[in-house]
Write a structure and sequence with these properties.
about 180 residues, mainly beta, OB fold (Dihydrolipoamide Acetyltransferase, E2P), extended
Length: about 180
């Protein structure tokens, strides 16, 4: 286990009941993005086997100003065999006094300490080290509040009932052969 302190978190997807299916629909994950402008923290993350990338003012220009460094961490919801991650389950989220926090309330820019499980892996014959997100201790809690959805204005609805002529290429055309 490794602990990384004073990390700025973005895009926290930590709902215990709804891990993200965006990248891996067959094995949803709980995930976060960490950001920093501190080169020493960047070096600490790299030394801790995190894949850190520079986000630049102009992404196509390697010489443009670096806005910040980022890395992503995740925890799979299922084991390789398809079983749930028992006993570990979802990512533990607590405040500074170890009291549980609703993980869906962590907003962008919150400052956290994170606990990871570091382990070796082999991919296409290459060995490496990786981190699995295990726990988050929220130090500065910027509460995420969902914005209400914008409502439709009232509008007239036009209803058109087509004649019996089926549209060209419709399923009805296939039956006529």
């Amino acid at each position: 286990m490794a602990i990384f302190k004073n990390c700025e978190v973005w895009f926290a997807k930590l709902d215990p009941k709804r891990p993200s299916k965006k990248l891996t629909p067959k094995n949803p994950t709980w995930e976060i993005q960490l950001r920093t402008t501190d080169k020493n923290q960047k070096k600490e993350w790299e030394a801790g086997y995190m894949n850190v990338k520079a986000v630049r003012e102009d992404p196509t220009d390697e010489e443009s100003k670096i806005l910040y460094y980022r890395t992503n961490l995740k925890k799979k919801s299922l084991k390789k065999e398809g079983d749930e991650m028992v006993p570990t389950g979802p990512v533990d989220v607590v405040d500074g006094k170890q009291n549980p926090i609703d993980p869906t309330t962590i907003g962008n820019g919150s400052i956290v300490n994170i606990r990871t499980f570091q382990h070796e892996y082999t991919f296409e014959g290459k060995k490496g080290m990786t981190n699995t997100l295990m726990g988050i201790q929220v130090i500065k809690h910027i509460v995420y509040v969902a914005k209400p959805m914008e409502e439709f204005d009232d509008a007239e609805t036009e209803t058109i009932i087509p004649e019996d002529e089926p549209a060209e290429g419709s399923a009805r055309d296939a039956d006529e052969f």
